[in-house]
Amino acid sequence: ERGKDGNVSIIYWQAPSILNPFLSGGTKDVESSSLIIEPLARYDENGGMVPFLATEIPTVANGGVSEDLTTITWKIAPGIKWSDGSAFTAHDVKFTADYCMHPEGGCAQLTKFEGVTSVEVIDDLTVKVTFDKPTPFPYGPFVGGESPIIQKAQFENCMGAKAPECTEQNFGPIGTGPFVVTEFKPNDVITMKANENYRDPNKPAFATLTFKGGGDATAAGRAVMETGEFDYAWNLQLAPEVIQQMQAGGKGTPIAGFGPLVERIMLNQTNPSPDLPEGERSTAKHPHPFLKDPAVYKAMSMAIDRPLLVEIGYGQAGQVTCNWVPAPAAVNSDTFKCDTQDIEGAKKLLDDAGIVDTDGDGIREKDGVPLKVVYQTSTNAVRQDFQALIKEWWAEIGIESELRNINASVFFGGDPGSPDTFQKFYADVEMYANTFNGTDPQSYLANLLCDKAPKPESQWQGENISRWCSEEYDALHAELTKTADAAERAAIARKLNDMAIEGGAMIPLVHRGRLSAHSNTLGGVVLNVWDSELWNAADWYRKTGS
Amino acid sequence: MLDQPIAQIKKLRVEFQTKDGPVVGVEDVSFEVRPGETVCIVGESGSGKSVSSLSLMRLVEFGGGEIAGGQLLFDRRNGGELDLAKANQDLMRDIRGNEIGMIFQEPMTALNPVFTVGRQLTEGLRVHRGLSQSAAEKRALELLREVRIPEPERRLKQYPHELSGGMRQRVVIAMAMACRPRLLIADEPTTALDVTIQAEILALMDRLKRETGTAVMFITHDMAVVAQMADRVVVMFRGNKVEEGTVEEIFENPRHEYTKALLAAVPKLGEMRGKVAPEPMKLMGVADQKIEPILGTDKPLLRVKGLTTRFPVKGGFFRRTIANVHAVEDVSFTLNKGQTLSLVGESGCGKSSAGRSILRLVEPMAGEINLDGVDVVKLDQSGLRKARLDMQMIFQDPFASLNPQMQLLEQVAEPMRNYGVASGSELVDRVASLFDRVQLPRSFMRRYPHEMSGGQRQRIAIARALALNPKLIVADEAVSALDVSVQAQVLNLMMELQADLGLSYLFISHDMAVVERVSHHVGVMYLGRIVELGPRARVFENPQHPYTQALMKAVPIADPRMRKSEKDLNFKPIPSPIHPIGYQPEPSRYDEVEPGHYVLTTDSGY
Amino acid sequence: MTELSQPQPTKPPRSQWLDVWEQFRQHKGAMMGATLFILIVATVYLGPYLWDIDPTKTAIRERNQGPSWAHPFGTDQLGRDLLARMMAGGATSVSVGITAMLLSLFLGSFVGVLAGFFRKLDGPLMRLTDLFLALPLLPLLLVMMLLFREPLNAAFGLERGIFILIVSAIGITSWMPTARIVRGDVLALKEREFVLAARSIGTTNTRLITRHILPNVLSPIMVSATLGIATAIITESALSFLGLGFPPDFPTWGRLLQDGTDYLQQFPERVIWPGLAISLTVLSVNYLGDGLRDALDPRIRGR
Amino acid sequence: MLTFTIRRLVLAIPTLLFISLVIFLLLELAPGDPMAQVPLTVPPEVKEKMREALGLGQPMHIRFWKWIVQFFWIEPQVLIDHMFGTTFSAGDLRVISWQTRSPVMDIVVQRIPQTLWVVGTAYVVAIIIALPIGIYSAYRQYSWFDQLGTFVSMVGFSVPPFFSGVLVIVIFSVQLGWFPSIYDTTLVVNSWDSFVQQLKQMVMPVMVLALQITAQLSRFMRASMLDNLNQDYVRTARAKGLSEYVVVMVHVLRNSMIPVVTVIALGIPSIFGGAIITEQVFKVNGIGQLLIGALQANDLPMVQTLTFIFAVLIVLFNLIADVLYGILDPRIRYD
Ligand SMILES: Nc1ncnc2c1ncn2[C@@H]1O[C@H](COP(=O)(O)OP(=O)(O)OP(=O)(O)O)[C@@H](O)[C@H]1O
Ligand SMILES: Nc1ncnc2c1ncn2[C@@H]1O[C@H](COP(=O)(O)OP(=O)(O)OP(=O)(O)O)[C@@H](O)[C@H]1O
Ligand SMILES: [Mg+2]
Ligand SMILES: [Mg+2]
Ligand code: NI
């Protein structure tokens, strides 16, 4: 029965700053707004698609997707109402696309609409999306937490350059989701109440919801598992011991789920030496003196004790991986084995390749260049522990590393003026994690295409961080974009993954899961890493008798 | 009742802990004070006068001293006798300010710099007398009038640093007398005051004593004042009482060596009558002292013309300038090489300000200052610094003018260091000889100012000014704080230096006898102007201006049988030097009554 | 009168500094502070020679251990020996703390004295202070790192370069309160008569400042010094936290404290050691400062 | 002094403009990008578009000028509109935060209450505690009270809030369960119960903050009292028979206030500026948290505005301190 369970409180250690996910790509904003506005379909906890506002998932089989893979037609479930009581129609869907695709709007979810040429309203409950070319995976627009539908009536006057002026709308979108905003304090707290017009009259079970933001993961975990002040805490990136200790508090339970997030070490294929003139550092002009040597990067990978890293860094929220794309399961390649450390093997590999220590300082040289690497990452306790361990392991095989940690907002900020961004990569190796949205890896795999390498001409923008380049890879990826069959796609994806790893673009370390925690009295929580974590908040309820 | 002493000091011994181990400030002192009686304590500087009186107030403890022995019996208002040496501080608080009032020696530092005079005056009244704010203020006003501070209403709202030395001293006096204490301890209360005001203050204390039976313990080095005031006299020397007796006995029949020396060193007004030039004093016990007049030269060294200095008076919440103190107003004089010009005059008439203006320590508003061909007013900072090599100043308040954080050695050596005159061991030697000259033991070289008595500090200031052998020394009350014997020595020293090196002095003093002894020329100041200026003999023997005449009349005589009575003094209200912002005073015009003897003809305010 | 005024026994004048030292030696707190301080410094600099475990050496099997003979302070989450880390961290923290404090003290007193003393400079210097107070710290540090890290590294080597950078970063961003406090005192002091007197004997401004003004504003400076050292040590840890400090394999007390905070409940000793070390250092410097101040103040001296 | 004050106020305008320019340039120069917090899954082209939408494509001087106009011309109008219901500012673009796409000043206004509650209370508490401690420590130098005070304040000062905050949370929230570990900014105080709740959630942050401030203030107070306790005028005051209380609390205190006034005046702007770490630890989400969040997100308009408000307060309170100097010590002259 709606509203019987009182208040539920959620804590995110990053505070939402806006409730319009189109204006901010931040996870916190996307997830908090997912309580209010919904897409036509979502991914479930297994990565499968479930209709939300649509009646079914359009496929070629049911005729929703055209044979030539250029259009997709969504049927909207009848009777859905906006929280203000008005009817939800195809016009709203079309409007959403127009809103995001407006050239001056700076829409953060533009990639979702990539290749879309038009969105047509067929009738009030039918909408058709047309792509510019055959699109084997047409579920970009209107699917998943990043692509919800906003109300036309509310946002009509907020298109393009006007978008930021619509504070009221951005802070309190009218939606179809289980909750509506009562008060939004940006970067602090959101209070919500149950949506009276929610399509299921018995949901949500909670009458109100508090969404607190800010602080740090430790505090959030403590508030759920130790003091019981909150019901749900998001993304607790904490040392396993700390989680354990908190769990002993007895008030809450951690839950983990695995998406495609991989913590990896990127290997710079170009020379980052500070001796090079500015503008030529870390560019294709100067290949790296030793990191391109398979013996070197393979040895580096072999020297790493991945199970140990998992144990000390992530516990139940991590798994050993040798792959760049470890999920969904279908695309996870099993070509490589890397779950045992092999220092001796690594040494032998290097010795055999003739990379030996010639001057007795304990550091090997390749062609007279000592194997000294600058190893950078963002500032984060676990990453610093990893750095310390890996530095030691590499030292054992004769590779010296200089550690550097950089403030995350600089490291991940793309400021071309800063020497410390991960794109600029003024270091030999760098460690961070990356992932992709949804279940289709095609665009993620595109990250290693030759022309995506950051370079001065492109203001150092580009996803090919290692500047890795292989014609073979580019060709195979082009094939992927034309393949529709799911199994075939998966096979190609696995092959691409293997090429990248074999070719030394990166050293994958840990397949990271999402670890969140909910209070023991909160029922119905299903952790979903493919969509917003709060995707099924409508189903949450208060457990009785505990 | 008269036989019952108010205070009895018995075998008092006070020690100070210094780094050289305990120093004895007072060794063995016993005397008593009876109601309605004035006991004068005289003695060498540093002999323990201040320390004894502080002990009676039980204030030595706060200064690092310790009453190591003896009794301090005090007869309380309601009869009971009490040993103050053993009283607890709560009880003392009741007594201090209420039953025993104390006037401190150094007025600048004795006043809290951040409170107005009125505030500090009323405090005691409100505590002991329970007066309301307005009643206390009324009483404070009355007190300021009694001590004859001009414009008392305005002074109540001023801060200590805005008052002249004499005014501050009078504020301290008013403060001590506020509650009509039964015992008044006055530690050199009139040292900073000119003779007319000194006479008035003395008269005031005398009246107080007669009317209320207040006992007065009067510490001074001025034998004339002793003669004027004392019923009995206690002579101290090096922490011991060496002689005690009635005034007449002491003056007429001194027994102890020191007392004799003291009396012999007292300068007397009229001693110089008929002599053309100043000459050193005859000192006791100094054989083959050659006494020759110091003639000096006729070449001018310092020429001052139309010097004017004003200070802004601030008021209101935002402390805006609302009026000006016309401290120095159109002053002109000439000082010759090797000669001394004395400035005398009432306290607050602008003597110090004039002296400071000449060194440009305060910026004069207008005027010309020509020192040996150098126009001081036009000098820039580095030029001024160079010029100061030739002119030095001895400050009126020695404690305030010494850096509390520096050893005396360093303070005296500083001018020489500054100009690179000497260094290393030579420097130390020169400092040592300067210490000898001003009669300070060399062991004092590593002491700090607060460990010295008032007179000792003054001598440091003198030594410092002499260090550079300047051409001109502005001596602002340089010898007022010294006991007569040392004073005589210092005066002789100064004259000796004048004879030997051709020094010139601008000598600021209120002590007419001393002025008569040392000066070639005398300027009499009143309300910022020189009212009479001329050769010493002419001004002293033929005073023309009514103020000069009054001044001469008020000079006390060091003879208990020639006491002045209150009736002899004619007190005139002192006009205010404070004028609203736009006020334009008329220029001074003089009449030359005799060659070189000028008298102000325009209105002086007197 | 010579027979009456025979001079008191003279002692050869000793230097003022000897005197101060005498005094200092008799000050119980000061001696305690000094001993403690020397002890801390000796431990952090000489300790590593006696306790020669590498502070960055991990030993996974021995992680998260409590105190034992092999590891008197226990080990951390990677099995690194905490005693060794404390000593290594101390060497960095103490040197950063002291140098940065001295730098900020110097800058602060310099600006404060100049502003208080020279009326002309007062306005500009105080506006400069306002500016520095108003500047947001983080961007300022980021800019400093951006501009100077590479040149300094190139000129002085990695460690020294970063040390210089951090020390100057802390120094440059923390001198303002000292400057304002000193200026306030100087403004009041300047009007004292002995300053006038000093000027009348031709004391140059430099000497006036160094010999007359500075000794008299010593006590607020001393307080700033003690507080400054704590601030510097903690700021350093904040810098490392932001990734602006020493490389991550460089332990410092601040960082150890910070890392330990997460394990506060399981392994409280991990925060107690660095916390205690910082507090003791600050405390010892405080007592040292108190003693020095008392020793330098002639009014208190001798009591 | 009125002229002094007025002159300083007038002078403050160019000073502040200059400061704002320096801040602006500093922020421009600082590495960082408003897109730092956008996930890596958003491709660079999209980020570039978003940047453009934020106005980042324009040259620096134009952006600075825009900010100046918005802050000094439009925001005051908004304020006037808000107070008198006029519509001067209708349609004008206000200073907009990049993170929230909403007017910066609105968020600032929203944040002020909790910051004032927590940091302000801590400050007041600290002053109330620190001054007596400092005074008494000086008066009884080297007594056990003084030693204890020294010890506690030194330890208090050397323990950073990121540690002491967590410590009190672990003790008082986790172990004892007395106080909430997370500050509820939505709490409306309108009844006794809610007031008690407000008090409860304030106790820990206030405690942690006050400890630091107390340590600092009491040290300065003590040192400067010590300097004055031996002066001659203190003797005079005693000779008047004033009680020790009056001697110390009136005569000595007033003379000792200059450094303390400086420290206090320097601290007051930081009340408005918030206490970054403490706010973080206790999730107070006041101005300090806003600033650090904006810094991390490189939300330049927000950082610029907050820093500038802070600068205004600093300039203002330093002026107040200077005026206070003149009132406290009449010898200090400004002209
Ligand atoms: N705080 C102190 N520490 C050490 N010695 C002191 C201290 N105060 C005074 N003395 C010493 O005690 C002795 C007596 O000093 P006191 O002030 O009583 O002299 P005095 O008789 O008042 O002299 P004067 O007429 O010069 O004021 C002097 O030798 C002085 O140096
Ligand atoms: N800094 C100041 N601010 C305001 N007024 C001042 C200041 N200094 C002196 N005065 C005033 O100037 C006048 C002259 O003072 P000055 O010190 O020159 O007197 P004096 O002749 O030396 O007196 P005394 O013999 O008492 O020392 C007095 O009315 C005094 O109040
Ligand atoms: Mg004396
Ligand atoms: Mg004078
Ligand atoms: Ni005299």
UniProtKB/TrEMBL annotation, chain B:
A Gene Ontology biological process term: transmembrane transport
GO molecular function: ATP binding; ATP hydrolysis activity
One Pfam family it belongs to: oligo_HPY
Entry membrane topology: Peripheral membrane protein
Alphabetic keyword roster: ATP-binding, Cell membrane, Membrane, Nucleotide-binding, Transport
Similarity comment: Belongs to the ABC transporter superfamily.
Name of the protein in question: Peptide/nickel transport system ATP-binding protein
Organism, scientific name: Ruegeria marina
TrEMBL record, chain C:
Biological process terms in GO annotation: transmembrane transport
Protein's cellular compartments: Cell membrane
Segments traversing the membrane: 30-51, 96-118, 130-149, 161-182, 217-246, 271-289
One Pfam family named in its UniProt record: OppC_N
UniProt cross-references to PROSITE patterns, sorted A to Z: ABC_TM1
Residues of the ABC transmembrane type-1 domain: 90-289
GO cellular component: plasma membrane
InterPro entries per the UniProt record, alphabetical: BP-dependent_transpt_permease, MetI-like, MetI-like_sf, OppC_N
The entry's keywords: Cell membrane, Membrane, Transmembrane, Transmembrane helix, Transport
Membrane topology (UniProt): Multi-pass membrane protein
Primary site of residence: membrane
UniProt similarity note: Belongs to the binding-protein-dependent transport system permease family.
Protein name per its UniProtKB record: Peptide/nickel transport system permease protein
From TrEMBL, chain D:
Organism expressing this protein natively: Ruegeria marina
Protein name (Swiss-Prot/TrEMBL): Peptide/nickel transport system permease protein
Cross-referenced Gene3D superfamilies: MetI-like
Pfam families membership: BPD_transp_1, BPD_transp_1_N
Taxon lineage: Bacteria, Pseudomonadati, Pseudomonadota, Alphaproteobacteria, Rhodobacterales
Keyword Transport: yes
Primary location class: membrane
Subcellular location: Cell membrane
Sequence intervals crossing the membrane: 115-139, 151-179, 199-217, 257-277, 308-328
